[in-house]
């Protein structure tokens, strides 16, 4: 299958984000009028897809919702603060706890913890600063270059963000509210704990198999088209045994080893070979 490359934008690094998988995911998206990103996280999937008549990004993590709300409503203030923030181990430490009563400072801390950590893992206190020892990019330390580039590209994110409706609902309530024949729901829940090299890096977790079963039950019998992302496992293959199963092309994992990640999707609609980007 020919995979067409796209010019991607990204607001934040986020553990479990689908930045590297976008081209493959979009190739299996069905035609729809309403796109619902049920666990939006970094919002990368919504930001980079072709705009629908209605795009909705949902997440219960207050830091996620506050960041995108501030980015959309107070962009100049946030951008100025981010431009003045040094790429510094001490700054990274000082941005935890992430929460602040000032929404702009809360958003700044969240961005710093996501962008200055390894693989967007900075939501937890124990995760470390991604220091650069001897790698350069654009004549700068690579981590400094990447941080500055991320800040510089935020206006592109803001432009797309203006067309996106942001929700903050429990996923069950969100599915019930927006379930419709013209709706396509993209579902990217926390990975199974047993399938991860690193445990509990999300602020809001699926603690056990029952949480994944509850999600499957919420998607059973809906009018909407739905796609579920996850790692290949016997548990997930059985959970969605009545859905179409697609294994995506693997990419090498960059964390401590070169294990090939078996990223897969399950869909509840007939597959059509059509690229929508």
TrEMBL record:
Entry-linked Gene3D superfamilies: Vaccinia Virus protein VP39
GO MF entries: S-adenosyl-L-methionine binding; sequence-specific DNA binding; site-specific DNA-methyltransferase (adenine-specific) activity
Transmembrane segments annotated in the record for this chain: none
Gene Ontology biological process terms, A to Z: DNA restriction-modification system; methylation; mismatch repair
Pfam family, one: MethyltransfD12
Keyword entries, A-Z: Methyltransferase, S-adenosyl-L-methionine, Transferase
Name listed for the protein in its UniProt record: Methyltransferase
Phylogenetic placement of the source organism: Bacteria, Pseudomonadati, Bacteroidota, Flavobacteriia, Flavobacteriales
Gene that this sequence comes from: ICEEaIII(15)_JM-87_17573_16740
């Amino acid at each position: 299958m020919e995979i067409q490359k796209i010019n991607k934008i990204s607001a934040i690094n986020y553990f479990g984000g689908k930045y590297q998988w976008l081209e493959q995911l979009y190739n299996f998206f069905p035609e729809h009028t309403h796109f619902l990103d049920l666990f939006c996280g970094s919002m990368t999937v919504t930001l980079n897809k072709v705009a629908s008549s209605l795009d909705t990004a949902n997440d219960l993590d207050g830091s996620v919702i506050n960041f995108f709300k501030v980015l959309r409503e107070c962009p100049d203030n946030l951008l100025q603060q981010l431009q003045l923030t040094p790429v510094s181990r001490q700054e990274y430490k000082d941005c935890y706890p992430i929460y602040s009563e000032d929404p702009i400072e809360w958003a700044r801390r969240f961005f710093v913890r996501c962008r200055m950590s390894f693989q967007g893992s900075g939501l937890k206190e124990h995760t470390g600063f991604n220091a650069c020892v001897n790698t350069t990019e654009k004549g700068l330390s690579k981590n400094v270059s990447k941080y500055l580039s991320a800040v510089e590209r935020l206006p592109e994110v803001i432009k797309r963000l203006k067309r996106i409706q942001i929700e903050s609902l429990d996923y069950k309530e969100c599915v019930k509210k927006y379930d419709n024949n013209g709706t396509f729901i993209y579902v990217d829940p926390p990975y199974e704990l047993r399938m991860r090299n690193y445990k509990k890096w999300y602020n809001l977790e699926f603690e056990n198999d029952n949480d994944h079963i509850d999600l499957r039950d919420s998607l059973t019998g809906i009018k909407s088209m739905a796609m579920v992302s996850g790692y290949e496992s016997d548990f997930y293959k059985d959970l969605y045994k009545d859905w179409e199963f697609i294994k995506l092309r693997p990419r090498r994992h960059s964390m401590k080893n070169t294990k090939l990640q078996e990223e897969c999707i399950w869909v509840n609609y007939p597959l059509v070979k059509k690229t929508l980007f």
